[in-house]
Amino acid sequence: MSISHILLRVVVLAGVSFGLVVLPRVSSAQNQDFSKVEIKVSKVSGNIYMLQGAGGNIAASVGEDGIVIVDDQFAPLADKIQSALKGIGVTDKPVRFVINTHYHGDHTGGNVPFANSGSTVIAQDNVRKRLASGGTAGNGGSIKMEAKPADKAALPIITFEHDVTVHLNGEDIRALHFPAGHTDGDAIIFFPKNNVVHMGDDFVRYGFPFIDVASGGTVQGMIAAMEKVQTQVPADVKVIPGHGALSNLDDVRSYVKMLKETMAVVQKALDEHKTLEQMKQEKLLDPWKKWSGDFINTDQFLETIYNSLTGNKGAFVKHN
Ligand SMILES: [Zn+2]
After folding, report:
1. Is residue 101 classed as helix, strand or coil in its secondary structure?
2. Which of 82, 93, 100, 198 is 20 to 30 A (C-alpha) from 54?
3. Which of 89, 62, 84, 72 is nearest to 168 (CA)?
4. Mean pLDDT in consecutive groups of 10 residues from the start of the chain, 320 residues
5. Three-class SS of residue 171?
6. Residue 1 C-alpha to ligand 1 middle, in angstroms?
7. Terminal Cα distance for the chain, rounded
8. 280 alpha carbon to ligand 1 midpoint, in Å?
9. Distance between CA atoms of 306 and 309, rounded to whole angstroms?
């Protein structure tokens, strides 16, 4: 989920059950004016490109065999994404495969138009399950969003439990499942020939990350994923985050350091039998407040860690 995708729903749901939450910007997939969105293409390395518009970053392998993309933002942007890919000028061949990093709508919203134009969508088993069922996303606390069951055409045709490899454009593009990080269905995508990795939302640049505890995410799993990836890639790998600017392993390391330090102070407070309210009153995460963002603020990240460590996925109220 991205900032823009989530804010309206947070406001609406918070207004229902948690009192008014003041947020700086209100927009959502439903009311966002996608006509204003431009797709920016950056060359990452070799034949790998990054596309940014609205929603999650897209990685694209563009070459003689055609195109493979990782994530597809929102449905209304599909035509613009297609023409941006053509504009690279390397191939007229189609997008043959779309790999989803996870089920959230700002990464899978384009599945229907891409599938309708002939692409095959690939994702981890849990992505298909969660798209098919719909349900609640959230941090187990003040952030909650309802997702409707997706159209059949949005469902990945090929799913995998642990990993899958797409052999195209002279590269073994590998999607590997990392359980219980941002969600329970996260895949991180490796482009080994070009020395690029797409992290999905296990690594983001908007500050404290959103961890979808309600969909099986945990801060512990996110840390484990990021630490494991660091052992599997060269030191100079180019890192495409789920959201934000192209990054490197130093950026990943400072992010993981923050995750580990904040988790440790919450664990210590839990060991001292403090309640979530006490932790909030003591401003436990104040030393890391530079990570507080428009999307996930310090209190919301404290809730996220608390709920990750205690296994509380939230007592969900059914809305409408
Ligand atoms: Zn997400």
Report:
1. coil
2. 93
3. 62
4. 47 32 38 91 98 98 98 98 97 97 97 98 98 96 94 98 98 98 98 98 98 97 98 98 98 98 98 97 98 96 97 61
5. strand
6. 3
7. 22
8. 25
9. 5
